[in-house]
Amino acid sequence: MACLEAKHLSLALGDRHHASPLLEDLSLRIESGQIVVILGPSGCGKTTLLNVLAGFQAPDKGQVLIDGKPAGAPDGNRGVVFQNHALLPWLNARDNIGLGLRLRGQSRGQRHAAAERWLTAVGLRGQGERPIQQLSGGQNQRLGLARALAVDPAFLLLDEPFGALDALTRERMQDLLLQLWRETHKGLFLITHSIEEALFLATDLWVMQGPPARIRQHLRPPFAHRHAEGERLRSLKNDPEFDCLRQKLLHDFLEYADG
């Protein structure tokens, strides 16, 4: 079972005389088959934590480990899905998916076969030749997800990937993400400021406050597992248990803000 760990991370911006701490002695662990969701308000340090986990930014103290070994620069073990899809506009849908495979030296035929498989997996079958400018926002997010999965990373890191989508498309993408998680058993790390999204997607939910980023709560909502067992999204979100947890987290958020 693969494991991605953050151990005692600290990071500050500025010089030693005027440093603003963003992370302070923060530790967490993500294993294969988990969906670790970080829930917190804007500016609390969620994206900074993801950037350190992905290898985009080095911490001042602490380290990131994969299976017990130090993980430095970005590598194929960690796929990233960004808030804006970050697709290349001069490439069509198929070639955007195959970009990482091209960098790995795979042949054109191998790249196209992999791209077609992932286009089908994310509901974009037959769209490979289309320029990304002709795709909707939701379709481009599906494409970004397919591109990250095509290189077969052990872990998928998602930075508020559905925040800019309309409500209906956002729910469809949440449904798709859980379907892909069920099929691939990858470890997922997702950040959001939506209480409803966090409750629905998380197997492990960490509530963050900051800066500096610190964990205030750890919950294990059952809804992602229940969805994997066949319960529908709407039924789960209408469940009284779901609403009770949502109201509790909202109340806690207001208390943190007042504190």
TrEMBL record:
This is Taurine import atp-binding protein. SUPFAM superfamilies: P-loop containing nucleoside triphosphate hydrolases. PROSITE patterns: ABC_TRANSPORTER_2. InterPro entries: AAA+_ATPase, ABC_transporter-like_ATP-bd, ABC_transporter_ATP-bind, P-loop_NTPase. It comes from Lasius niger. The keyword Translocase applies. Pfam families: ABC_tran. Residues 4-235 form the ABC transporter domain. Transmembrane segments: none annotated. Keywords: ATP-binding, Cell inner membrane, Cell membrane, Membrane, Nucleotide-binding, Translocase, Transport. The keyword Transport applies. GO terms for molecular function: ATP binding; ATP hydrolysis activity.
